[in-house]
Amino acid sequence: MVGGVLKEFGPPKFGKKLGEGIMITLPVSREGVANYIGLTRESVSKTLSQLQEEGRIEMIGNKKILLKKRLIRLGIYNDF
């Protein structure tokens, strides 16, 4: 579910392709993301933290997320 939101918020809406991946600037808080997909804020934060620990994303502040090329190759973004 969180992956789907990251894809939806990606290019061209709120994301920009960079050399190291895709930078997404979330238009809402993590609580807003949670409400949007029907999860708790804690569940969204836990999922994002797990993706960061796995090296698939890098969280930059509260609203920026770098989707690393590794995540993109796994099929979240097939057109990168």
Key phrases:
4 strands; globular; 5 helices; four-stranded antiparallel beta sheet; single chain; 80 residues; Arc Repressor Mutant, subunit A
Write a structural description.
With 80 residues, the chain is an alpha+beta fold. It has a single domain (2-76), classed as Winged helix-like DNA-binding domain superfamily/Winged helix DNA-binding domain (Arc Repressor Mutant, subunit A). The protein is 51% helix and 22% strand. The chain has helices at residues 2-8, 10-14, 30-37, 41-53, 69-76; strands spanning 15-18, 21-25, 57-60, 64-68. A four-stranded antiparallel β-sheet has the order 1-2-4-3. A hairpin with a 2-residue loop joins strand 1 (15-18) and strand 2 (21-25). The radius of gyration is 11 Å and the shape is globular. It starts with a helix and ends with a helix. The mean pLDDT is 85.
Topology of this protein?
Blueprint: H1 2-8, H2 10-14, E1 15-18, E2 21-25, H3 30-37, H4 41-53, E3 57-60, E4 64-68, H5 69-76
Antiparallel strand pairs: 1-2, 2-4, 3-4
State the gist of this model:
With 80 residues, the chain is an alpha+beta fold. The chain has helices at 2-8, 10-14, 30-37, 41-53, 69-76, and strands at residues 15-18, 21-25, 57-60, 64-68. The chain contains five helices and four strands.
CATH class: Mainly Alpha
The order of strands across the largest sheet is 1-2-4-3
Fourth CATH level, the homologous superfamily = Winged helix-like DNA-binding domain superfamily/Winged helix DNA-binding domain
Roughly what fraction of the amino acids lie in strands?
Answer: 15-25%
| Average residue-wise pLDDT | 85
C-alpha Rg (nearest Å): 11 Å
| SSE class | alpha+beta
Element-by-element helix/strand order? HHEEHHEEH
For the secondary structure, the number of strands is 4
Shape: globular
Instruction: Kindly state the percentage of residues in helix.
Output: 40-55%
Total count of helical runs of at least 4 residues: 5
CATH-derived architecture? Orthogonal Bundle
Integer tally of domains: 1
| CA-CA gap between termini | 20 Å
Biggest sheet statistics: 4 strands, antiparallel
What is the CATH topology descriptor?
A: Arc Repressor Mutant, subunit A
Low-confidence stretches: none
